[in-house]
Design goal:
Elements lengths: L1 E9 L4 E8 L10 H14 L11 H16 L8
Antiparallel strand pairs: 1-2
EC number: 3.1.21.3
Keywords: Hydrolase
Protein name: Type I restriction enzyme EcoR124II R protein
Length: about 80
């Protein structure tokens, strides 16, 4: 990887640079859906998200959303809500 700097904007008084490390992507022309999904999950885990394998149905996902909203708002929903 090489560190590169490119100007984002320039004026007479200042310049804003973007610094990034260029990743060699030679040979990366096609990525299957499963590989893309795996990479997304790995990226999210690296950012601190938790991968919950047990949330594998819509009902379980909605139950988790309800639980998290109740925790966040410090309240309990009734079954009608």
């Amino acid at each position: 990887m090489t560190t590169q700097t490119t100007p984002i904007t320039e004026t007479n008084h200042f310049i804003v640079l973007d610094k990034y490390e260029k990743i060699d992507q030679s040979g990366a022309s096609y990525q299957s859906e499963s590989a893309l999904k795996k990479e997304l999950i790995e990226d999210l885990i690296n950012q601190g998200y938790e991968y919950r394998r047990d949330l594998n149905s819509q009902a379980k996902l909605l139950a988790n959303v309800r639980e998290q909203l109740q925790k966040l708002n410090q309240m309990a929903f009734s079954n009608k809500e």
